[in-house]
């Protein structure tokens, strides 16, 4: 039984099957007592609730299943193509060009369209990732991204910037 694996739990409360093996029928009757079950659930509820809150997403939940999939795909693309330089929305190459909203605004890149353009064609030290990116020296030498992937990525970056990159685990901006 799964609950019997929880440390520091009294086995009499958790698994009557274990107690049956020991020949202790009295403990099984105690387990069936609704008051003991209620008491057990009351003790279990606060840690379960805390775990639920801690593991729930911090970003604003998407409005539909399709939006949730798009957010997940954007996060995955970010993890594959961007995280090397932009850990938690920062910038390890050029500190003034982070993905935090104040830097995006200062650099004139605070819309999804502008984020898309820079991601596709590159700018300054940032290489372009678009399939038709030119000139060659401005573009990544790695895998290129399709237009719809860059759109998802731009949407993800903009939404994270608006939220302060909280769900990525940064220490603030």
Structural account:
With 173 residues, the protein is mainly alpha-helical. It contains eight helices and two strands; from the N terminus they run H-H-H-H-H-H-H-E-E-H. It has helices at residues 11-14, 16-21, 25-32, 34-55, 65-81, 101-106, 112-121, 147-163, and strands spanning 122-123, 126-127. The chain has a two-stranded antiparallel ribbon. Helix 5 (65-81) packs across helix 8 (147-163). The model is unreliable at 1-6, 9-16 and 169-173 (pLDDT under 50). GO terms for molecular function: electron transfer activity; heme binding; iron ion binding. Residues 69-161 form the Cytochrome c domain. InterPro entries: Cyt_c-like_dom (IPR009056), Cyt_c-like_dom_sf (IPR036909), Cyt_C6 (IPR023655).
Residue runs with pLDDT of under 50 for 5 or more positions: 1-6, 9-16, 169-173
Number of DSSP E strands: 2
Percent of residues in β-strands = under 5%
CATH class of the largest domain: Mainly Alpha
The overall pLDDT average reads 77
The major sheet is characterized as: 2 strands, antiparallel
CATH architecture of the largest domain: Orthogonal Bundle
Work out the oligomeric state of the chains in this entry: single chain
> What name does the CATH topology of the largest domain carry?
Cytochrome Bc1 Complex, Chain D, domain 2
N-to-C terminal Cα separation, in Å? Answer: 45 Å
What is the fourth-level CATH superfamily of the largest domain? Cytochrome c-like domain
With strands numbered from the N-terminus, the spatial order across the biggest sheet is 1-2
Query: How large is the count of helical segments?
Result: 8
| Content-based structural category | mainly alpha
Number of domains: 2
Report Rg. Answer: 25 Å
Percent in helix: 40-55%
Shape designation: elongated
Q: Which series of helices and strands comes N to C?
A: HHHHHHHEEH
Function: Functions as an electron carrier between membrane-bound cytochrome b6-f and photosystem I in oxygenic photosynthesis.
GO molecular function, one term: heme binding
Domain Cytochrome c: 69-161
Keywords: Electron transport, Heme, Iron, Metal-binding, Thylakoid, Transport
């Amino acid at each position: 039984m799964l609950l019997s694996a929880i440390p520091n739990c009294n086995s009499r409360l958790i698994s009557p099957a274990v107690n049956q093996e020991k020949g202790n029928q009295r403990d099984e009757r105690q387990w069936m007592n609704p008051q003991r079950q209620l008491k057990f659930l009351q003790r279990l509820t606060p840690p379960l609730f805390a775990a639920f809150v801690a593991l729930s997403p911090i970003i604003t939940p998407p409005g539909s299943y399709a939006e949730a999939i798009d957010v997940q795909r954007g996060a995955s693309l970010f993890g594959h193509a961007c995280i090397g330089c932009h850990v938690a929305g920062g910038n390890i190459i050029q500190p003034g060009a982070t993905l935090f909203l104040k830097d995006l605004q200062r650099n004139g890149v605070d819309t999804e369209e502008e984020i898309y353009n820079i991601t596709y064609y590159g700018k300054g030290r940032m290489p372009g990732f678009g399939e038709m990116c030119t000139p060659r020296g401005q573009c990544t030498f790695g895998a290129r991204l399709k237009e719809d992937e860059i759109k998802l990525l731009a949407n993800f970056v903009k939404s994270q910037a608006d939220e302060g990159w909280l769900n990525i685990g940064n220490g603030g901006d």
